Amino acid sequence: MEDVAEVSGFRVRFAEPQDCDRIAAMCAALWPDGTVEEHRQEVAAKLAGEAISTLPVVILVAERQDRGLCGFLEVGLRSHADGCDGRKPVGFLEGWFVEEDARRHGVGSALVAAAEAWAREQGCAEMASDTWLDDEMSQRAHEALGYVVVDRCIHYRKLL
Ligand SMILES: CC(C)(COP(=O)(O)OP(=O)(O)OC[C@H]1O[C@@H](n2cnc3c(N)ncnc32)[C@H](O)[C@@H]1OP(=O)(O)O)[C@@H](O)C(=O)NCCC(=O)NCCS
């Protein structure tokens, strides 16, 4: 498959089935509530085009020369997102992760640029994303790439 982008020392491309285990390990680092095996099953389904989602979703990966994958970004379409025009689907950054030793070298930015290009091809005019209120690093990274805060939420739950 053709590269989506090539930046100094690494390239960004669409994930392939053989990337599943590495992506699952990175998912577990990003979302530790799930086990590597649980993530592996979800990633495998997405890479096989069998994601439990009515709208398209793809996974992009960043690969370092001779050193394997160092980041991934899962991007999908959502029918609506807070602060966005509800009349057409929005590209949504579902998961965005770069290994610690590869950070601050433009890998995250290159993944987002590729995700935005993909969403544009799907007909989107807007991107959206979310992160945790206490995750300063993620907030700074989003803002550096032009993402503007539109809302701040607290999620509630009550057992019935
Ligand atoms: C967020 C993340 C994906 C960014 O990846 P990255 O490869 O470091 O991103 P880049 O190198 O392209 O950084 C782009 C810009 O974001 C900002 N930025 C990134 N990390 C930052 C940090 N720790 N503190 C302040 N600004 C930061 C900077 O402006 C940076 O540009 P600069 O390095 O030229 O100053 C990575 O830090 C990560 O995986 N974090 C843990 C998981 C996470 O928070 N994911 C996002 C929420 S789902």
TrEMBL record:
Pfam families: Acetyltransf_1. It is an enzyme of class 2 (transferase). Its EC number is 2.3.1.82. Signal peptide: none annotated. Keywords: Acyltransferase, Antibiotic resistance, Transferase. PROSITE patterns: GNAT. It comes from the Bacteria. Coiled coil: none annotated. One of its GO terms (molecular function) is acyltransferase activity. Gene3D superfamilies: 3.40.630.30. The keyword Kinase does not apply. Residues 10-160 form the N-acetyltransferase domain. The keyword Acyltransferase applies. It catalyses: kanamycin B + acetyl-CoA = N(6')-acetylkanamycin B + CoA + H(+). Homodimer. PANTHER family: N-ACETYLTRANSFERASE, N-ACETYLTRANSFERASE DOMAIN-CONTAINING PROTEIN. This is Aminoglycoside N(6')-acetyltransferase type 1. The lineage of its organism: Bacteria, Pseudomonadati, Acidobacteriota, Terriglobia, Terriglobales.
